[in-house]
Design a protein that fits this description.
alpha+beta, binds zinc ion, FAR1 domain-containing protein
């Protein structure tokens, strides 16, 4: 169970705008084959479709680099965002399961008294 108070203090990822396209087609074409579409979700600004780097296995540790398309709700425009993280799939692809960095973080979480495994996993999605 994730405590509400903890959710609110979670670090908000920083997204930078790469480009705004006039239509969805152009935006989708601009995304290379190394990106896989994730589940769409709806926000106040419009629908957002996150993309993950597909150099990593879907169920393994994810590459830190992520992209996102925002389908504006008031017009046809689609904005492409990228997060601040660099690709780190070279490190993660050779390892299986939880890597050393993650173990350290998990140990810190455990010592903080946060022992929710679901929460630990969700940090790495
Ligand atoms: Zn990557």
């Amino acid at each position: 169970m994730v405590h509400e108070s903890h959710k609110k203090t979670r670090k908000i990822p920083i997204w930078e705008i790469i480009q705004t396209f006039e239509c969805a087609d152009e935006a989708e074409k601009s995304i290379g084959k190394e990106w896989s579409k994730c589940t769409k979700y709806v926000t106040d600004e419009g629908s957002k479709v996150p993309y993950r780097c597909n150099r990593t296995k879907k169920r393994g540790k994810q590459c830190s680099a992520k992209m996102c398309l925002l389908y504006h709700c008031h017009n046809q425009k689609v904005t492409l965002f990228k997060n601040e993280a660099e690709h780190d799939h070279n490190n993660s692809s050779v390892k299986r399961g939880i890597d050393e960095n993650a173990k350290v973080i998990i140990n810190e979480l455990l010592s903080d008294g946060i022992i929710c495994f679901t929460f630990i996993c969700s940090k790495y999605e």
